[in-house]
Amino acid sequence: MAVFQKIPKYATSGLPNQTDKAQLCEASDTAAGIVQRYVFYSALCSFVATPRLILKPFQTFYFMLTPQLLNQISPFEIRARQIVEGFLTGLHKSPYYGFSVEFAEHRPYNRGDEIRHIDWKVFGKSERYFIKQYEEETNLRCHVVLDVSSSMLFRYHGEWTKLGYGAHLAASLFYMMHKQRDACGLITFDQELGEMLPAKASASHLRFLFSKLEAFTKLAPESGLQRNTASAEVLHEVAERLHRRSLVIVISDLFENIGENEQLLNALKHLRHRKHEVVLFHMLEKRSERELDFPDGRYLFQDLETGDEVDLTPSEIRTAYKNEIEAYTHAFKMACSEAHIDYEEVDTGASFDLALLAYLNKRKRLG
């Protein structure tokens, strides 16, 4: 919720004439209310306030994808871990058999089959004709599903808002996919499904996606927008509307109303049931949202999505809060693992380069 640190009367004489803009953070009114969205406003006096963090301006996402980052991610490929359907030759396994580079199995020769695919070694042993069958390789359709609700506009320790961080992450993944000749699409949502841009592999489409993502980095809590989240309903709709097996990457802080986490998990399972590979990036700022790390004092927390407020002292609930969020994230991670959903927690207060490379290395290790 919205939080103003209360300044003792004896300190008010030291306040500057013009107050700084409020800094943002997120916390919970009680340990049990861990899944609620909150924003914190720092104290206005100079000896308490944290220096303001400014979002770096850039003209296009190519400026955000620095030469250093591009060099670091260039050795990596994002390969589908399961069978996908595509329309070009590429890196990923297709459900359709062809005559490509990787042997799959033998099948009996049928009249009309090409003689050049007969396995003569098998014929020499069995005196029966068998055809070598191969798994065809295809390109990948990747859909990034980006949460653009108001809780994603939170920032306290990080360089960008959670939405800005997620947009940078999506842009980096789009760049890598495009380099592999894979097709990329973007789906946005808050309390309802927003834009649903189809997956395409052209350079012009990549630039179009970048322009959409760039617009999200310019949004700030000061805009006064209050957009709630309805992740479960939206993901069920996405599952019904994506008709071909794809890689679906969900980027969200997963802040739902209390008691709705089971519905969210069921929606993710719905995507898996439709034969999609699902990757979930859980966006949390570690120091503020996981550890409730604020300077001593009393704060007024405000929900970024509803405007509801609660008055509390973070230090009084910190231990219980940390236990609750640890239990919540661990349980959700285990449930995702059981459903074969790739869960990755992302600290939006950490360096973006390090977070991205950590995930790419993990994916490469796991194959």
TrEMBL record:
SUPFAM superfamilies: vWA-like
Transmembrane regions: none
One Pfam family here: DUF58
Residues covered by the DUF58 domain: 105-326
Superkingdom per UniProt: Bacteria
Stretches of the chain forming a coiled coil according to its record: none
PANTHER family: BLL2464 PROTEIN, DUF58 DOMAIN-CONTAINING PROTEIN
Name of this protein: DUF58 domain-containing protein
Organism of provenance: Cyclonatronum proteinivorum
Lineage, opening ranks: Bacteria, Pseudomonadati, Balneolota, Balneolia, Balneolales
